[in-house]
Model the fold of this input.
Amino acid sequence: MAFTENDIQKWNTDFASASPAEIIAFALEQNSNAVVTTNFRPYEVNILHAVTAVDNTIKVIWCDTGYNTPNTYKHAEDLIKSLQLNVKLYVPKQTSSHRDAVMGIPGIEDPNHAVFTEQVKLEPFGRAMAEHKPEVWFTNLRKGQTALRNSLDIFSVSKDGVLKVSPFYHWSDEQLDAYLEEYKLPNEHKYFDPTKVLENRECGLHT
Done:
């Protein structure tokens, strides 16, 4: 897929006030080899609904760490059925029970935390992207989440050169809540990410 830094800057200017549907449709016009990634955390339903409303065949990559709450797993199953998601599931090569016995969930200051993050999130994600080789990657990154995400925009480029598209980048929680109400979509708040612990930490997927 051919695009330049000038293209990215222009698109971010042109689509700054565009609707998610307009952004998604434009991105798919650039290249239809696309995926949307999800972990079914709070407000993930917004991106899943918006993307599949434009293309209901798009591949939905779910990297399940194995440490989700029962509520998150139920939420995921409900969305998979109601939105008819084309889910491609990726899990760590080691079970959570095995890992719990030999390592547990290391604290963020523990040197093993990097190993843990690689095992439960980065390796499955890398495997998924290597297998599907997308040219366009839809995410639900938003401004204000972390310092890194504040430096991005609606359109950015991943470290592997994939066009990363965040249709809700400029949206607030209140706007996302209004979207959920408009489309009568459920949200999920009982979510736990063992690789981040703190909301303002990056897990490594977007760095």
